[in-house]
């Protein structure tokens, strides 16, 4: 005990002591939760960025292939070969979203093409390819058909433009 000052009646009190400052480690549960959410957001952002880059690359490859077909047509002028190659490219892209696209003909092929939101004249141009590939001397408007194919491929390369096959009535 401390000595009492003269004239006081009671024990001598010590000065007030503050508790030690809280340690920064280990972190409180709220900080762990915030770190987990930040990590999850970072992983999701990386996934979306990678997906976007992959889709951009696929779209670029499709349009490059279309340009190669147009360049070959300018060089050799074979309308039948261009019609067959364009038709094959369209089928290949459509088959990514619907396996039945490889076997479709006529109206069912038009419905598959129409699942991508494009204008009706674009669909008419693309359906003309379906007829032109079976003619020995295929004659069609090449610049308009290439523009229609470019328009359809740009829209078809976006996965959200394709509605689910299961939602369509009568689709097996």
Automatic annotation (TrEMBL):
It comes from the Bacteria. It holds the Pfam family DUF4381. InterPro entries: DUF4381 (IPR025489). The chain crosses the membrane at residues 30-49. Keywords: Membrane, Transmembrane, Transmembrane helix. This is DUF4381 domain-containing protein.
């Amino acid at each position: 005990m401390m000595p009492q000052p003269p004239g006081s009646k009671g024990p001598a009190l010590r000065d007030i002591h503050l508790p030690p400052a809280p340690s920064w480690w280990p972190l409180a549960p709220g900080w762990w939760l915030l770190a987990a959410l930040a990590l999850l957001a970072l992983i999701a952002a990386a996934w979306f960025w990678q997906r976007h880059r992959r889709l951009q690359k696929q779209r670029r490859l499709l349009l490059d292939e279309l340009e190669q077909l147009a360049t070959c047509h300018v060089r050799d002028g074979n309308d039948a070969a261009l019609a067959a190659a364009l038709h094959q490219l369209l089928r290949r892209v459509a088959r990514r979203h619907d396996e039945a696209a490889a076997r479709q003909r006529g109206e069912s092929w038009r419905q598959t093409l129409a699942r991508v939101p494009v204008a009706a004249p674009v669909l008419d141009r693309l359906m003309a390819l379906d007829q032109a590939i079976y003619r020995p001397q295929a004659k069609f408007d090449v610049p308009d058909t290439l523009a229609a194919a470019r328009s359809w491929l740009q829209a078809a390369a976006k996965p959200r433009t394709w509605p689910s096959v299961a939602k369509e009535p009568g689709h097996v």
